[in-house]
Write a structure and sequence with these properties.
homodimer, Arc Repressor Mutant, subunit A, Beta-Lactamase, 8 strands, elongated, DNA-binding, Tscrpt_reg_IclR_C (chains A, B), GAF-like_dom_sf (chains A, B), transcription (chains A, B), DNA binding (chains A, B), transcription regulation (chains A, B)
DNA sequence: GTTTTAAGTATCATAATATGATACGGCGTC
DNA sequence: GACGCCGTATCATATTATGATACTTAAAAC
């Protein structure tokens, strides 16, 4: 019996939103192989986001939940190590270019991206529409690669965005490749967040959408993240029949309809997703024709 | 000054300036506002790069220069905090999606990107060629945004790449906006790394190229990073007359010549760079500048 | 199939390290 | 002109990280 869907890699979901019970810290996770200072430093990094692009020491302390002294020391360390820039006038901190270099390293480490990108480029050029690569990450999806062809809102043009899987075409497409039981568990339990009046909050409706994807092999969603935006996604299926990623395309509802999409976008989209699929292999050491266990 | 990276064994490529004197470590920068554990954790993150995409505990220890126990604890912490994924079979670590989320946060914080991206999209569509946004970072440039329109080699399609400014058209374009004295100091002292047989190592030649950019308002370079690649870049000039960034375009030398570029690419490229310029507000970052204080 | 070697994991006593309260100085505000 | 806020610097304390060692598992060698 499977409690929560916990696919392949051991992906530790995301931040431990610890309530700051200020106790004497015989805290829960304090084994001797947990370095609190490092974790606190990471908290500082995570304090920056969409709405907090530039933080003073005080704000940093507030947002991270650390006291002034700790924040001072950690922020200073991050600055010395080149992870934070500091405006000498305002004394405020900002993410540094190093953050992009981490992304660079990430890209090399992701086995899927290298295979996908050339094909995504071709696809984007062929369609003339924005094409994305999304990967499942716990119960969210992350946009790993984006090839914008039209102007859109900013968040849709930059990589790293993390969205609830259930609210996105990519997430639903990927989910549609999961075994029925897991699929249902996900649909019942995974988080949903409202972004627009059009965001679907009814899980029954999401189920319909996913089951449709099971049947059709692709998912379509409308106005989930932003009004008048339609997303189409086709799963990139791995050797085990499960997808961890999807090729996604976002278009404007003003110029596109469902039919038109199915006719003009879908074929190429699916071809691309399929073309990427075979290369997604796990490494089994060598030659033996070991099929799956169990 | 560091010219060439050691080609032999892969040792720390980006070691923070720190002597390995393992002694009693009343070390240089150890004030009470420097948290060593955090810095060590960052070392672990930096151990991943282009050639090291997936590291075992041992490799991690070796590349970071930390002992086994420290590595164990820190890596474990990073794993618990969701910064590193761990393959349960091979027990090897990999960058997690969180690295992309940091990039996401970076993008919101960079005042230039938001202004530039829509215009870059338009430009890329108009030209049908790969367009990049590069920013100066110490004596290197970093590709902050990329809009590939043609298949190229992988490294040219992903963001966060850091290259010696002198070896790139973007770097030279930006440099061309610096006051003469600084310009010359940079040309004399900034690092150069050889990537192809075509990489210019002669600083006199680089000076010519930069001075040409001073005169023309744009820079062109050929075969610096990869053979048969031509780069054109136009600086994005701030209110103080200095550029911190450039719009760059990479094309194949097989289908493009210098004249053709000047005729068909340059006008739109410069228009775009100029259109972005006014919105750029300067700030200074801390850190790396090994250059002289004037 | 058995032994050897290596790599990852867990434990623990020690002191070195991070801690956070406190005090100082500069800057914009009231 | 005085106050209050925010960033910076200092310091004694004990909490925290340390790294040597021992255990466990997996792969390599025989």
């Amino acid at each position: 019996m499977i409690h929560n869907a916990k696919p392949g890699l051991s992906v530790n979901p995301f931040p431990p939103p610890r309530a700051q019970t200020q106790g004497t810290s015989m805290d829960s996770k304090q084994n001797t192989l947990y370095v609190a200072s490092l974790a606190k430093g990471l908290r500082l990094l995570r304090a920056f986001d969409e709405g907090n692009t530039e933080l003073s020491l005080g704000e940093l302390a507030q947002r991270s939940g650390l006291d002034k002294s700790a924040t001072q020391r950690l922020a200073n360390t991050l600055h010395m190590e080149g992870m934070l820039d500091k405006d000498p006038d305002t004394r405020r901190f900002r993410p540094s270019h190093a953050w992009l270099q981490l992304a660079y390293a990430y890209y090399w480490s992701d086995p899927l991206v290298g295979q996908a990108i050339p094909k995504l480029i071709d696809l984007a050029q062929e369609l003339g529409e924005t094409v994305n690569l999304a990967e499942m990450s716990g119960d969210h999806i992350v946009y790993v690669s984006r090839l914008p062809c039209k102007r859109t809102y900013f968040a849709a043009t930059i990589i790293g965005r993390r969205l609830p899987a259930l609210s996105t075409s990519a997430g639903r497409a990927i989910l549609s490749t999961y075994p029925e039981q897991e699929r249902n568990a996900a649909i019942d339990n995974w988080p949903i967040k409202v972004f627009t009046p059009g965001t679907t909050t009814d899980r029954a409706e999401i189920r319909r959408s996913v089951e449709e994807a099971v049947h059709d092999g692709f998912a379509i969603s409308t106005g989930q993240m932003i009004l008048n935006e339609i997303g189409v996604a086709s799963p990139i299926i791995g050797h085990d029949g499960r997808a961890h990623a999807a090729v996604q395309c976002s278009v404007s509802a003003h110029t596109w309809s469902r039919e038109k999409i199915e006719q003009h976008i879908l074929p190429a989209l699916q071809d691309t997703a399929n073309a990427i699929s075979p290369s997604f292999q796990p490494y089994r050491s060598g030659g033996l024709g070991a099929s799956d266990p169990a």
